[in-house]
């Protein structure tokens, strides 16, 4: 404790000071003796508890190192002190750890010989929070409110009329004004009339509002159970303590407008204030004199009282809030229960599913309205009857066994979904899908089964129809001579008809699951697998195959799309077309002979025309293939080329073979050969539009052709091709009326009139052929003796 330093400082004070030390060490506050230079010459042993310094450390300091007042203020305190009379001041002191805390100093001036000394008693105001521990305890035990709980206002929680009466009585005893103000600045309790404010400040409407803002600001950051002591703008003491309910701040209690006993009142301040604001100076000073002068002990008592009072308000507010919260929870819960019951009832009444309850004896105790809608029974015709009365005899055992297991397994065990038939009121049988569980309403209440059943008659009928359809489809697919296989994406056989199994010489069951190439290619994949092409392209494909036995097969493959939009498999249909191929070849040979016969008929009348038609047909087909046209179109061009001048049968022979020049009438007669050819061919049942092709083979792009003057897209593509081949062959070959002009002249003709008379793409194809060395197979080589 630094006793040597203490002894050194106090040695010259005399025996009476030693006795004083013994006395002051027994009190709870810190006792000082300070000289006029602010040196601490004595402190009692309580200094370490309050300041954190030992006595020796404290005596090594000057008073101003712990006191936050200025040198001028200390000198003023010394000058204002009166011998033998004490006075109090509020100030802030600094602890050893640097923290500040409020203290009240009671100072008395004494003389020791010729030396003046200040004797002081320092009380720690921060420890005077009489209700703080209790409030903290209450705060720690508070219940937590829900996030959506909105606390009520302070005025809704407390009977403030009773509190107002209590505070009025308290004011009569203390003359200290008091206010209870909520967080919005609303004054709920007020005593004393606050006459001093009326005289000094509140002479207009704005001033009270500013005062209220000042109140709310001073209450900020004050903890539950704590007080803030401060001087207001009018140099009077006021105190504030908050009202909490748990962590929720509801308002504050304000006490104020008093002076400390022994405190020197600055009357000059009030005179100056009255003069500056135009107040009545005499009334102002009279009001000041009327304010209470309180001893420190009185302030302590008031502080203690209002701390406890704030606790009482807080506890009651908390109780009220808890009641409000509980009531709100109860109301919400009741509303939820009522709403849920309404929703449940609405659901049960309008759902298409059947809701039913069955007791442990198997008797129906409740059936929802769906029972009547679905099965034609009124509720009163179902309730009270045995559940099994309505079940199909074939399904009764499984249904009753399932119900019995539910009761044996106990509450809340959900049964497996069960499908069975029940009797409709009209005598028919309907299918149900049902599930449920056993429950009870209370511990001692009997158990009952609650179930939900759905009418699945439609689904069952669909399944039965689908089953029949599958059987019928299987019968049909197995009856056909075509071989049919269904492969999955991995080319494994999922289904195969009997015709395919017979073709392979195996049983159907032995083929399921095998991959296609293990059957056809002994484990090797095909180079151009039609199944893989279908899977990749998502389009149907077909191809013709010939096996080592000389058989022809037409294979068609179709993609099967899954629910995900991807190809899930391929159906392959194979048809033996060997006989058809042979018959087709015979038919083609017969048809070819017929066409050549028709061509020979023309040839008999005009040998130039016969060779010309064969040359045109060959060149036209070659041009079609150069353009990438398919086999079907090229075949139609071949036949039409062989017959394009068949109409010349109707032209007199002498006109066809005349060496001299034809007149206009004679030439018009020859031009009719296109239409005559059409008339000959139009009723012949051919697989191609040969008659139309023959009709249009002398039409030109610009409309200058005959017989109908067609233009552009009005002319068939096949006719445009034969037209170019016809011109090239005619110019290249010999004719009765002129000699051959040669290939170059023919190609120049189509080049010069490309886009005008002849289709440019067709001209391009023709030029490509001759550039690669194309020549006519049939040439007459007859000299020309006539010009046209």
Helix content: 40-55%
Shape: elongated
Distance between the termini: 150 Å
Count every beta strand, where a strand is a DSSP E run of 2 or more residues: 21
Poorly predicted runs of 5 or more residues: 1-13, 128-145, 779-788
Number of helices: 29
pLDDT average, as an integer? 77
Give the strand content.
15-25%
What is the rounded Rg?
Answer: 61 Å
Structural class: alpha+beta
Let me know the largest β-sheet. Answer: 6 strands, mixed
Describe this protein's structure.
By secondary structure, the chain is an alpha+beta fold. Helices cover 45% and strands 19% of the residues. The chain is built from 29 helices and 21 strands. The strands form 4 sheets. Strands 6, 7, 8, 9, 10 and 11 form a 6-stranded mixed sheet that branches. Strands 2-1-5-4-3 form a 5-stranded antiparallel sheet. Strand 15 (429-439) and strand 16 form a beta hairpin. Helix 6 packs parallel to helix 12. The longest helix has 55 residues, at 296-350. The chain is elongated, with a radius of gyration of 61 Å. It starts with a helix and ends in a 17-residue tail after the last helix.
